[in-house]
Amino acid sequence: MTDPETAYVLDTGPLSHFAQAQWLGVLGSVLKGHRVLIPDVVAEELRSGAEQHHYLRSVLDADWIETVPLDTPAQLTAFVRYERQLVGPDGRNIGECGVLALAETLPGAIAVVDDRVAANAARGRPVTLRRTLGLLCDAIRAGLLTVPLVSALADDLLRSRYRLPFGPGGFAEWCDREGLF
């Protein structure tokens, strides 16, 4: 996949949907050997949802995920910059702001975000982005996962109402159409 020194900074969306679909362990296996980080604002989103959605507890309890406080001047400046672009009156996208700020200020880090608006906000900024499907495709190419396994995983994510660029049973066809394998 990538250099083991690479840190992946994950957003609430992928983590919560993988946990809800009971595939969180697979995500951990895909990222094994890398630092897997969440900013404190993502941890807070997960904590605040855990009372209503018990599966979020598995994310917070995962020993392979490290919570990092956003507390340096560079992190806080980046966070505020993203916050001005992404957060509206409803308060949504705070987690994405934290993920992008942490990935931008941590050398060699990769932000894992699937939100198109957040990805657009990162354009032109010194932050490397990766989508969840990209991670899974990288894992298939590395021999860690198979197309049938990821197809089942993707269908379960769709059942959890995760937005993917294909419908149920469409992962393999999407890969072919995108020329991924």
Q: What does this entry look like structurally?
A:
This protein is an alpha/beta fold. Helices cover 54% and strands 10% of the residues. It has helices at 12-20, 24-30, 40-50, 56-61, 73-86, 94-105, 116-122, 132-141, 147-159, 171-178, and strands at residues 7-10, 35-39, 65-68, 110-112, 128-130. It has a five-stranded parallel beta sheet with strand order 3-2-1-4-5. Helix 7 links the parallel strand 4 and strand 5 (128-130). The longest helix is centred in the middle third of the chain and has 14 residues, at 73-86. The radius of gyration is 16 Å and the shape is globular. It starts with 6 loop residues before the first strand and ends with a helix.
| Poorly predicted residue ranges | none
Shape: globular
Number of helices: 10
Name the average pLDDT: 93
The sequence of SSEs as H and E is: EHHEHHEHHEHEHHH
State the helicity in percent bands: 40-55%
**What is the assembly state of the chains in this entry?**
single chain
Largest sheet: 5 strands, parallel
Distance between the ends: 15 Å
Q: What structural class is derived from the secondary structure elements?
A: alpha/beta
- Total number of β-strand segments? 5
How are strands sequenced across the largest beta sheet?
A: 3-2-1-4-5
Question: How much of the sequence is in beta strands?
Answer: 5-15%
Précis, in short:
The chain is an alpha/beta fold. The protein has helices at residues 12-20, 24-30, 40-50, 56-61, 73-86, 94-105, 116-122, 132-141, 147-159, 171-178, and strands at 7-10, 35-39, 65-68, 110-112, 128-130.
